[in-house]
Automatic annotation (TrEMBL):
PANTHER family per record: DNA-3-METHYLADENINE GLYCOSYLASE 1, DNA-3-METHYLADENINE GLYCOSYLASE I
GO MF annotation list: DNA-3-methyladenine glycosylase activity; metal ion binding
Gene Ontology biological process terms from the UniProt entry: base-excision repair
Protein name: 3-methyladenine DNA glycosylase
Residues noted as binding Zn(2+) in the record, renumbered to the chain: 4, 17, 175, 179
InterPro entries for this protein: Adenine_glyco, DNA-3mA_glycosylase, DNA_glycosylase
Domain of life: Bacteria
Tagged with keyword DNA-binding: no
Species this chain originates from: Desulfosporosinus youngiae DSM 17734
């Protein structure tokens, strides 16, 4: 069986591919973490983001949503200066605004997970791509989720980011059909 080739020989990328990518998660904290990391990736490689993941976890107290929602401008600036994260101020500020938006969704839907997974009736979309070149950068569903999240105050949630996010939390399985990690091969 041939596997997805995008992780290459990079051990961090391979571990992410094997253990997290396209694995369904219903945990709000993990989902929030992936939303923040996918937003941080905009314009960069996923490898860069994964290499800074531990620093993000330290800086944002393992993506404690309540903590992130209460961060002040000064605290966000300190985080930017003291941690080895992506230094884009707008992306860093999005952590707070997205945390606030998540808390609002939790009040309305019970959880961030419930809100998101309702788009796919609680079950992942399992694709059967023959090659990685077939995997889309965005879909009508990622466009809809992006639009809905933006209306609710989320930042860095364009349709391409959201499609990657959907892969990250397992709302879609985009492993190629012959990859041993594809849902149908496990």
């Amino acid at each position: 069986m041939s596997s997805c080739s995008w992780p290459g020989k990079n051990q961090t990328m391979q571990q992410y591919h094997d253990n997290e990518w396209c694995v369904p998660s219903y945990d709000d904290v993990y989902i929030f973490e992936m939303l923040i990391l996918e937003g941080a990736q905009a314009g960069l490689s996923w490898n860069i983001v994964l290499s800074k993941r531990e620093e993000y976890q330290k800086a944002f107290r393992h993506f404690d949503i309540d903590y992130c929602a209460k961060l002040t401008d000064e605290e966000l600036e300190t985080i930017k200066d003291q941690y080895n994260i992506i230094k884009n101020r707008t992306k860093i500020n999005a952590v707070r605004s997205n945390a606030i938006a998540v808390l609002n969704l939790q009040k309305e839907f019970g959880s961030f997970s419930t809100f998101l997974w309702n788009y796919v009736d609680g079950q992942p979309v399992i694709n059967s791509w023959v090659s990685e070149g077939q995997i889309p950068a965005q879909t009508p569903l990622s466009e809809q989720i992006s639009k809905d999240l933006k209306k609710r105050g989320f930042k860095f949630v364009g349709p391409v980011i959201i499609y990657s996010f959907m892969q990250a939390i397992g709302m879609v399985d985009d492993h190629i059909r012959t990859c041993s990690y594809h849902s149908r091969n496990r």
